[in-house]
Design goal:
Blueprint lengths: L1 H9 L4 E6 L13 H13 L4 E5 L21 H15 L7 E2 L3 E4 L2 H8 L14 E5 L2 E3 L1 H15 L4 E4 L1 H4 L9 E4 L3 E2 L1 H12 L3 E5 L5 E2 L19 E3 L2 E6 L13 H14 L5 E5 L3 E5 L13 E5 L4 E7 L4 E7 L5 E7 L4 E6 L5 E3 L4 E6 L3 E9 L3
Parallel strand pairs: 1-2, 4-7, 4-8, 8-10, 9-11, 10-13
Antiparallel strand pairs: 3-17, 5-6, 12-13, 14-19, 15-16, 17-18, 18-23, 19-22, 20-21, 20-23
Helix pairs in contact: 2-3
């Protein structure tokens, strides 16, 4: 989702050239399930990916478990490809014209990420972000990239969707931002700093999450937005706009371990300072499940453990176009969940499941939807007079 959002901001057409449909192993201990393939495809479409080119469509010399075997045998996963193609090309009207709606903006600044890679022994390993030496003004490299990645996750925990803006190349896109989150870094591109200062001074709202920028891309010192505010976490005026500074960062945790206090703080600020999200999905009750020793070698110790996930792992993305209005609801919990889905647009009257045809009427601006674990549902959005 994070990568697709950046692609949406920088490309004329967002698509995946290699969306894997097989695996790298021919002898498998277990196969990739069809529902997992469907879930991954719908997650990509929900976040603005307009086309999928399914790599590994048929078995070859070094991969297997593809939708089609080496002798042309169709496997069950081939139906997943057919279903997704039908959804985008037949069921949804004007698929290429749909645009995901977003509620706030996260800044992408290449200079901050360049600092991350200075000491990285394996910069191409996306699953192992290096954090450590060298330092810039006492701040570890890699920290800004960790914050950038985590902010998207925390924003979804509060039931909103973030757009991405790279001010070096598209500073004009800031003018429509309800509020902007800057992953804090000791070094920032000079054009990013200038664009953000102009945005806030003219009436914008900015949250700096992490170290306060002190240098620009040449290494020269800067006084970003005058200087760092003394009131940490509090609203501080700058020109006609406002700044909040959270030095510890909101997104520097780990998946499913993000700080509940950070999530609560961000939700309160956004609910107070910005319009209601276009759509918000939240579990009606806490979602829990039972694990053997929480998944860690506990069978030898005996017994099971009930785990309650206090964070919101539901995602709702509204996509609008001239011909259709579609809602994706994604359940990232490992357990089925009943989602309460609410809309800012009071003209929305109901939803129609595009797979089953089931209708859901809104009551008090919200609908209750049952979503299975690790799965996605897609709905047509109905409005008054349509």
């Amino acid at each position: 989702a994070r990568v697709l959002k950046l692609m949406n901001a920088t490309l004329r057409y967002t698509w995946s050239a290699e969306f894997m449909s097989g695996t790298w192993e021919r002898v498998l201990s277990s196969r990739v399930s069809d529902d997992h393939m469907r879930f991954m495809a719908l997650c990509a479409l929900a976040q603005g990916c307009k086309a999928l080119s399914w790599f590994m469509f048929h078995d070859r010399d070094c991969w297997g478990d593809s939708p089609v075997g080496t002798h042309g045998h169709a496997r069950p996963s081939l139906e997943v490809l057919r279903d997704v193609k039908k959804l985008a090309c037949e069921t949804i009207k004007g698929w290429d014209t749909l645009v995901p709606k977003t509620d706030l903006t996260i800044i992408y600044d290449l200079t901050s990420h360049q600092h991350s890679y200075l000491g990285d022994p394996s910069p191409c390993n996306d699953n192992a972000l290096y954090i450590g030496e060298p330092f810039v003004d006492g701040e570890k490299c890699g920290q800004a990239s960790l914050e950038y990645e985590g902010l998207f996750r925390v924003v979804e925990h509060v039931g909103r969707q973030a757009a991405v803006v790279d001010p070096v190349h598209s500073s004009a896109a800031l003018s429509d931002a309800a509020i902007v989150l800057l992953p804090g870094s000791p070094v920032v591109h000079q054009k990013t700093a200038q664009a953000l200062e102009e945005y806030v001074f003219g009436g914008g709202k900015l949250i700096v999450s992490g170290p306060w920028p002190g240098r620009e891309n040449s290494g020269a010192r800067i006084r970003f937005c005058g200087s760092a505010p003394a009131q940490v976490g509090e609203k501080v005026a700058f020109g006609r706009g406002y700044i909040w500074w959270v030095p510890a960062g909101l997104g520097s945790g780990q998946p499913e371990l993000d700080s509940l206090d950070s999530i609560s703080w961000l939700r309160n600020v956004l609910d107070r300072e910005t319009p209601a999200p276009h759509v918000r999905a939240e579990p009606e009750t806490d979602v829990s499940w039972v694990n053997w020793n929480d998944g860690k070698n506990m069978k030898s110790e005996g017994g099971v453990r009930t785990y309650i996930q206090p964070r919101n792992l539901l995602t709702a993305v509204l996509q609008e176009g001239p011909e259709d209005s579609v809602l994706f609801v994604l359940n990232h919990y490992p357990e089925a969940s009943r989602a309460s889905v609410s809309f800012a647009d009071d003209r929305v009257t109901g939803l129609v499941d595009l797979e089953t045809g089931e209708s859901h009427q809104l009551a008090s601006g919200a609908a209750g939807l049952d979503i299975d674990r690790k799965s996605a549902r897609v709905y047509r959005v109905l409005r008054e007079g349509k």
